[in-house]
C-alpha cells in the first residue's frame, strides 16, 4: 500500500485533558468519538503507521497528588493507571471506526492490555495496527512526555506530534497574554533555554539526542492531525534547526 504522508511512522501524544469536557476532568464520550474518527481517517487515508501516548491528567495527575502531601512514587503510579483508563477508552472508540488497535502497558495487567514489548509494538505497526502505549514508562518521576520521547526513539518514529489545547508554542501564555507571539520554528536548545513548557526537559533532551522532530499543534480543530502528519504549515516545528 502506498503512503501519501511525508512520514512513515509517527507517535501522536495526546494530553488526558483532550479527552475531557470543558472542565478538563473525566472522559467525554463524544469528544473521544470525534478524536477517534479523525485518527482513523488519517491512518486509513495516509497509510501512516501511528503509535499513541495518552496522558492521564483528566483523571489523576501524579505531580498534583505529591504537591498535596502524597508520596511522589505512589502518586505517579496512580497517574500511570489513569493513562490505562484513557488508553482503553481510546482503543474502544478507534475500533468502532474499524481501526485495529492494541494497548501495550508498561505496568503488566494481562487481562486488559499486552505488556510493552518493543518488537511486538513494531510488528503491530507494520501490520497497520495503531498501538497505544499506556502506563507511562512504568517508572515514577517520569512524565508521559518522556514516555512519548522514549517510545518514539524505541520504535524509530519519524516525528512526535504533540496534540495540545493551544495551536503551537508561544513566548508567553496566549490565554493570559493576548499579545503572545507564536513561534513557527524552534530548536531543541531554544525550548530548553527559554523554558517554554512544550514538554519537560528530560523529554526534550531525549528528542534532541535521537534527532526526533516535534510538531506542536492544536488538537481542537478538525483536520489538524492530518496536516501534522503531512507536515503542512501548522503549529510549531521543533528540531535541530
Outline the structure in words.
With 241 residues, the protein is α/β, with parallel strands linked by helices. The chain has a single domain, classed as Carbamate kinase (3-Layer(aba) Sandwich), CATH 3.40.1160.10. The protein is built from 8 helices and 11 strands. The strands form 2 sheets. Strands 4-3-5-2-1-6-10-11-9 form a 9-stranded mixed beta sheet, with helices on both faces. A two-stranded antiparallel ribbon has the order 7-8. Helix 1 links the parallel strand 1 and strand 2 (49-54). Helix 1 crosses helix 3 and helix 5 runs parallel beside helix 7 (201-209). The longest helix has 24 residues, at 72-95. The chain is globular, with a radius of gyration of 17 Å.
**Which of globular, elongated, flat, extended, rod-shaped describes the shape?**
globular
Radius of gyration: 17 Å
Oligomeric form? single chain
The main β sheet shows up as:
9 strands, mixed
Number of continuous helical runs? 8
Work out the number of β strands. Answer: 11
Structural class: alpha/beta
Report low-confidence residues grouped into runs of 5 or more.
Answer: none
What is the CATH level 1 assignment?
Answer: Alpha Beta
- Mean pLDDT rating: 93
What is the architecture at the second tier of CATH?
A: 3-Layer(aba) Sandwich
Fraction of helical residues = 25-40%
User: N-to-C SSE series?
Assistant: EHEHHEEHEHEEEEHHEHE
Amino acid at each position: 500500500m502506498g503512503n501519501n504522508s511525508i512520514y512513515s511512522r509517527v507517535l501522536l501524544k495526546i494530553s488526558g485533558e483532550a479527552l475531557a469536557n470543558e472542565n478538563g476532568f473525566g472522559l467525554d464520550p463524544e469528544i473521544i468519538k470525534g478524536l477517534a474518527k479523525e485518527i482513523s481517517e488519517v491512518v486509513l487515508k495516509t497509510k501512516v503507521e501511528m503509535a499513541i501516548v495518552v496522558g492521564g491528567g483528566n483523571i489523576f495527575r501524579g505531580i498534583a497528588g505529591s504537591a498535596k502531601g502524597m508520596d511522589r512514587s505512589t502518586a505517579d503510579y496512580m497517574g500511570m493507571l489513569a493513562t490505562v483508563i484513557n488508553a482503553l477508552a481510546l482503543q474502544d472508540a478507534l475500533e468502532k471506526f474499524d481501526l485495529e488497535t492494541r494497548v501495550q502497558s508498561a505496568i503488566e495487567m494481562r487481562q486488559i492490555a499486552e505488556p510493552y514489548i518493543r518488537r511486538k509494538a513494531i510488528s503491530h505497526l507494520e501490520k497497520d495496527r495503531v498501538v497505544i502505549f499506556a502506563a507511562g514508562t512504568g517508572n515514577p518521576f517520569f512524565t508521559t512526555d518522556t514516555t512519548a520521547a522514549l517510545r518514539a526513539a524505541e520504535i524509530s518514529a519519524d516525528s512526535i506530534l504533540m496534540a495540545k489545547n493551544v495551536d503551537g508554542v508561544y513566548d508567553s501564555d496566549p490565554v493570559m497574554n493576548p499579545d503572545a507571539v507564536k513561534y513557527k520554528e524552534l530548536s531543541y536548545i531554544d525550548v530548553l533555554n527559554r523554558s517554554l513548557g512544550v514538554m519537560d526537559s528530560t523529554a526534550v533532551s531525549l528528542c534532541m539526542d535521537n534527532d526526533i522532530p516535534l510538531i506542536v499543534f492544536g488538537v481542537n480543530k478538525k483536520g489538524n492531525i492530518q496536516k501534522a502528519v503531512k507536515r503542512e504549515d501548522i503549529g510549531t516545528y521543533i528540531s535541530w534547526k
